[in-house]
């Protein structure tokens, strides 16, 4: 899984290198959604993660450990 993510990010970086305009890419481990994280569980972090994405305004965001519900949350905050 990690190798796949790295391969995709490298491929996207290479694509940006030949593009007319620079491509900005961010990769971020958002950690899976588990209630065992207590105060650090996803419902308490999702707004901060979405704010980081909005602030940096990258062209491509790569995330690790994301579950479908987390991606839905981030998409809704876009």
| Low-confidence spans | none
Look at the structure and give the mean pLDDT: 82
Order of helices and strands: HEHEH
- The rough form would be described as globular
- Number of E-type strands: 2
- β-sheet strand percentage: 5-15%
Number of helices: 3
Class from secondary-structure proportions: alpha+beta
Question: What is the alpha-carbon Rg in Å?
Answer: 14 Å
Could you describe the largest sheet, including whether it forms a barrel? Answer: 2 strands, parallel
Terminal CA distance: 26 Å
Question: What's the short version?
Answer:
By secondary structure, the protein is an alpha+beta fold. The chain is built from 3 helices and 2 strands. It is globular and about 45 Å long.
Can you give a write-up of this model?
With about 80 residues, the chain is an alpha+beta fold. The protein has one domain (about 1-75). It is built from 3 helices and 2 strands; from the N terminus they run H-E-H-E-H. The protein has helices spanning about 1-20, 40-55, 70-75, and strands at about 25-30, 60-65. Strands 1-2 form a two-stranded parallel ribbon. The radius of gyration is 14 Å and the shape is globular. The protein starts with a helix and ends with a helix. The model has no long low-confidence stretch (mean pLDDT about 80).
Task: Spell out the key features of this protein.
78 residues, two-stranded parallel sheet, 3 helices
């Amino acid at each position: 899984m990690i190798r796949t993510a790295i391969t995709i990010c490298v491929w996207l970086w290479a694509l940006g290198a030949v593009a007319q305009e620079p491509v900005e890419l961010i990769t971020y481990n958002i950690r899976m959604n588990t209630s065992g994280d207590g105060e650090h569980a996803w419902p308490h972090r999702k707004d901060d993660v979405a704010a980081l994405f909005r602030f940096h305004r990258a062209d491509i965001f790569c995330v690790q450990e994301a579950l479908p519900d987390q991606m839905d949350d981030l998409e809704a905050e876009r």
